Amino acid sequence: MAHIDYYFATLSPYTYLCGTRPSEIAAAHGATLTYKPLDIMALFGRTGGTPPGERHPNRQAYRLQDMRRRAAILDLPINVKPAHWPTNGAPASYAIIAAQAEGGDVAKLVSAISTACWSGEKNIADDAVIRDCLKETGFDPDLADKGMLSSAETFASNLEDAVNAGVFGAPFFVVDSGEVFWGEDRLADLDAHLSGKI
């Protein structure tokens, strides 16, 4: 049975565009999947990346076009310049880590949180928004405050794990076969790899 580590940032538009597909692909191949939210800005600093706001204007302009096109292809609404971005992605990440430990549909929770940012014009650093996402996806809203120290430690260790695994962006998929896939637009490649085609 294959295993996938899914490294992502709660505030990433490409995490939003993934939706629940990583979970669906894993399930289709009988693979297990671990959600590993991380601090994307810290990852950029550790692996030679540049935060979006510090990139050359050409790169910034391309990013906005790419987000709009990918959303259209996937038939998803998106505000490429949401009201509450950038924001602190850690609180929502802590809730996801706690939810994963609790058990339940983490795919729906990750999707709900990223949707709140990129389509719902909500601040995913706000406790009320996080609690609403937990409730709407079948989790106890109190998970937002449960085990925060442990979740913070996991959040930090996810960054270290990511760097050690060769991760430099998000979303990023690391398969125990040694193959890695970067970006929402590489989900089809992940699917093909798990099928044994590549």
Describe this structure in words.
The chain has helices at about 15-20, 20-30, 40-45, 55-75, 90-100, 105-120, 125-135, 150-165, 185-195; strands at about 5-10, 30-35, 170-175, 180. It has a four-stranded mixed sheet. It is globular. Helix 2 runs parallel beside helix 9 (about 185-195) and helix 6 (about 105-120) crosses helix 7 (about 125-135). By secondary structure, the chain is an alpha+beta fold. The chain contains nine helices and four strands; from the N terminus they run E-H-H-E-H-H-H-H-H-H-E-E-H.
Notable traits:
globular, 9 helices, 198 residues, 4-stranded mixed β-sheet, Glutaredoxin, alpha+beta
Which geometry do the CA atoms define?
globular
In percent terms, what proportion of residues is strand?
5-15%
- Computed structural class: alpha+beta
User: Which regions contain 5 or more consecutive residues with pLDDT less than 50?
Assistant: none
CATH architecture identity? 3-Layer(aba) Sandwich
- CATH topology heading: Glutaredoxin
Q: Compute the gyration radius: what is it? A: 16 Å
Described by strand count, sense and barrel closure, the largest sheet is: 4 strands, mixed
- Widest beta sheet: strand line-up: 2-1-3-4
Terminal residue distance: 17 Å
Helix fraction, binned, reads: 40-55%
Question: What is the succession of H and E elements?
Answer: EHHEHHHHHHEEH
Q: What is the overall pLDDT average?
A: 97
Continuous helix count: 9
The CATH fourth-level homologous superfamily: Glutaredoxin
Total count of domains: 1
CATH class term: Alpha Beta
